Sequence to fold (278 residues):
Amino acid sequence: MPELPEVECVRRGLLRSLPGQEIATARVLWPGSVATHTPEAFAELVRGARWGVPDRRGKYLILPVPPRCLVVHLRMTGRRFAAPHRDDEWEYHPHTRLILEHTDGSRLYLRDIRKFARVYLVEDPLSVVGALGPEPLAEDLTAEVFDALLSRHRRQIKPLLLDQHVIAGLGNIYADESLWVAGIHPLRSSDSLSALERVRLYKAIRNVLSQAIVDGGSTIRDYHGADDRRGSHQQVLAVYGRRGRPCPRCGSEIIRSVVAQRGTHWCPTCQPLPGLQP
Fold:
């Protein structure tokens, strides 16, 4: 599933091409892709609208089409492609679910193999994203605020980081990577972390996410940016997807276990848990 870095890279790609473009037609090729309207109603409401400046909240794209807004969740296999003209490979692909054509002939495509991606056409994006937790890269999420956030919970740290109501945008890849950077086992209870460990985790999350954005995100399976290009951050992942390979910090074998029903990768030496035998 695209996480914060991947969605942010898509947003930045759309920022280069969408603002000011006028929607000429909308074709909903699978009705379930639009969560709020019938295909006919959706097409009628967006026809003639001009795109505003793309935004992001957690893992959601927020695409203004005043006086409304498209809120897009790409879920597991959703991909957005902003094409400067009709692209037949996308136009006729069996997994293309939505095509928005602009008056200049350019297109915005949504492809989704598993049909999990959803588009919400709403007047207020808060109706979709209002319950999300703070943004991990926001200036107002200081180390002190993050410390207070963790202090309100007594939960295993990995599931806590994945809870979008606690902090928005982190998923399986970057939770594992951040915990490795901070040297914290994913099964640790959040209230067991020392003040130093909480600061380390705060810095790790921000550094890991920031670098992933610079690298264009991680293409593990399906993710491509708005220009249909793969990300490269998967090439420098330290633990995620590296079961049985040496830890890049200490050389110990990376372990994969299941935490909160999610495959979880960690180093038994760098991320010790008292009483746990790897």
Remarks:
- The longest strand covers residues 96-102.
- The chain has a mean pLDDT of 94.
